[in-house]
Structures are given as structure tokens and as C-alpha cells.
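## Example record

The block below lists the input lines for one assembly entry, exactly as stored, with component labels intact.
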Amino acid sequence: MSSESIDVALTHLARDHSGRVLASLARRFNDLDLADEAVQEALIEASQKWPGAGVPENPGGWLYRVAQRKALDRLRRASAEQRRVDRVAADLVEHNAPADDERSMLIDSRNDDGPLRDERLRLILLCCHPALAPDSQVALTLRLVGGLSTEEIAAGFLVPTPTLAARITRAKKKIRTAKIPLSEPQHLSERLDAVLAVLYLIFNEGYLSRSGTGEPMRVDLCEESIRLSQVLAGLMPDHSEVHGLVALLGLTHARRDARFVNGEMVLLEDQDRSLWHLPEIRTANAALGYAVRMRRPGRYQIQALIASHHSNARSASDTDWTGIVALYDQLVAMDPSPVVALNRAVSLAMADGPLAGLAALETIEGLDDYHLLHATKGELLSQNGDHQAARASLTRAHELASNPSERHHLATKLARLP
Amino acid sequence: MILLYSDETMHPDFEPGSPEFEAMMGEWMAFNQTLIDAGQMIGGASLSGTDTATVLTKNHDGTEALTDGPYAETKEQIGGYYIVSADSLDDAIDIARRVPIPVGKFEVRPIAFRPA
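Predicted C-alpha cells for the full assembly:
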């Protein structure tokens, strides 16, 4: 087997199986650290042995067996824990026939969690526990559920690896010391909101850090968050907002290849729509239809409906802007944040003209330091022929923007003003 | 009640079992014993570091939020304290939630050590 296909198999092993194995071992030993270390060691063993021995027939089952052995080895080595080891080890070794959850682990079924469903869900809920700092929730979810290495996550977020490693260590210390439990919470829907927020945050981080240089990213956070959302949708099929999030992310990501031309950012209305990935749009629309039929609306479904309006329109002028404004009205009612109001103002300008948009912008409070408020204002003023005021707003936006492509886009806008 | 405030970054980090650790603990034990002997000891504990703290906020509108980290006092003051036994952070938060104060902040922190 070529070293390239070994690499692919190893990546699959980490992404598709490690979160599941970790969830199961963490539950079995009631020890997240032990489970994490055991899985990491097993992944290292795979990278050392597979190039010579080949990829085993059932990689998931292999990982489970090896990680379990590593966990037991670790427990044996910790002499202070000897008694506990004897108890657990005897228990495990005596079972010649694998228990139900083990059996399903040994069957290579990438998308069927079976009895492991609850364990994986508990692990995701633990990683996204609101008692952990948001940064830590994101890092832990990608690392423990998503199977990404610390280096990969650090690269995705453009932070030094030691910083990311410290973040994970701190979070694991808090889980251990404060006893954040690996259990299904009482208030499941509230906690689900926190999980969805983490997945959305990961997506947005990937979306914003994406550049037009065509340089392939080592880790695509957008794809990772879509993958994890799909896992969550499989675990919680009856929650409409999970499907709403899957749809929103899918619809947004489907436009990725049209967002930049020669390294320059292209706004939605100017994008070459033939570059949008139609099969992905269809898949996302199907998820959205499934969600909406449950008749339990939420902010992700509304945002996905807005994205779907764009995806289904052949051109910007062909877009149902009035329908989009109506959806934003609903979104404002659910989430009265100024950023939502800003997006509503943009769609209002598309529906009723720049003056309507500018009037709506005037009512927004608390975004004076947000570059997109000033960028929008500059754009609408310029459309309305007030170039002097437009220049002032675009200059302010350029001062506040930090993302290089956005800065470049604003600088170009400024240079093109009459 | 006496609340102990000090800079935790300056706390000595002795390995349990080391002579330095034993000396430090001996000092605390001796102090505790003076209180016990005088019949003045009601309860007390050493808490885990603030990096293990969680704050439950109950808002005026009935919503609540959990955040990582200790609570920095602003206009609220500590009006009392409970030492409870809980199996997990979620259980402890549930107890904090039931404290009959409708609007306020509740810092939940694990106890590191408590004199018998």
C-alpha cells in the first residue's frame, strides 16, 4: 500500500473513529484523561505499524482494541490505582464475548453508532459544557470529538501550538477538578444550544480565515464543523435546529469557490453562481426541508431559509428580497442582536433601496466599533450618490477591519469612489 | 465568617509528601487545632484554584447563564456561603440554582481540602 493511502487511512481513523472510541472508553473507565491518552497512543501505534503491516480490515475495531489495551496498561502502571485496575481489568479480560457496545465497535460501521449513540452525545455535551470557556469548548470538541490533533487545531485557528495545548490542558483540568460530568443533562435543549453555538463558531472561524490565495489549508474548519454537525444530527435526529444548522452550514459552504477571484473577495450579489456547488445545495435544502417540517422553528432554520433564498436565485436581482426581509423580521424577534439588525438593514436596502437601508442602519445601537456597520453604510451612501460621506464610512470600516481580504476589499472600494 | 483573599499565583506549589509541604500543612493544622480546642471551629475549607470556578448567573428576566471562571465582585456582595456535597459540577449547579435568591451570581468551586 502506498504511503499516501496509508496517510488517508490514518486521517480517516482519527476523524471517523477516534471520537467514538474515546467516548466509549471515557464512559467505561469514567476517566476522560485516561481515554484521551489511550486513544492518542493507539493512533501513534497505528502510524508506526500500518505502513509495514498494512491497514487492518476493520480500522475502528483495531483502534478500540489497541486503545483499550493502552488504557489498561496505563492503569496497571499507576501503582497507586492497583486495586481499581484489578477490578476493571478482570472484568474486561473475563469477558471473552464482547459486550454489546464493544460488538458494535468491532463492526466497521462509520455512520451507525448503535448503542454508542448516548456515549458520543455525552462526550459532545461535555466538551461544550458552558462551564468551560468558549475557546476551550471549541478546542476540546475538535480534539476529542473530531479527532483533530492539537497541531491541526492550532493551525486552523492560527494560534501557536503551545497556546492551544495549554487551552486543552486547562479545560481538562477543570473537567477533572470541578467534576464536570459525562452524563446526559436535565436541560438537554439548553445544552444543545451551546453545542450548536460551538459548531457554528468553528464554521465561522474557518469561513473568515479562508483566504483567496488558493493556498490549501491543512485543516478546513468549515468542513470539520459540517462533519460534526452531521454527526450530531445523526445522534439527535428529532431536534429541528440541528438539521437547521446542517443546512445553514452546507448552503454557506457551497458558495466557497465563488467567494474569491484572484485573491479578491467577491460579495454575494457579484458572485459567479455557476461556481456554487449544486449537489451540496440540494443536500442542504433537503436537510432544511426535514427540519422545517418538524414545525419547531429556530434561529438556525431561519438563517438557513435566508441562505436558501440566495442559493435558489439565479442572480442577485432575481432574489426574493422582500421574502428575505420577512425572514429577518422573524430572526430579529428571536435574536434582537444588533448584528442581526444590520443584516436585516442590508436586505431591506436590496428590497426597497439604499435610503430604506440607511434609515434602518440609523436605528442600530452598539455597533460603532464593528467594521461591517461602517462598510454597509459606506456602500449604501455611495449607491445613493453621497460619495463624500461614503468615503468617511469606508475609511472608518478599513481602520476597524482586521481580516486581510476584507481590508483589501475595502481599500479597493475606497479607491474606486469617484 | 472569615473569607480568605490572597493572590493564588503566589501560593506555594509544594509536592504533597515533600518536607516543605508537610511543614506548610503542619502550620495550618496547628492553627485549626487552636480553633477546635477553643470550641471556635464551625467549618472551613481550602478551595481549588479559580481556574476551576464556574459562575451561575440568574438574571432579572428569569434567564440564566453559566460562565467559566470566578466571579469578580462589582456591586453585589457575598451575603453568605454554603458547603455542599455534590457528585458533579452539574449537581452542584443545580443546588446553586435552588438557592432562594431570584437574581444574583453563584460561584461554584470545588473544595480542595477540609479539616476533619
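DSSP finds 20 helices and two strands in chain A. The two ends of chain A are 61 Å apart (CA to CA).
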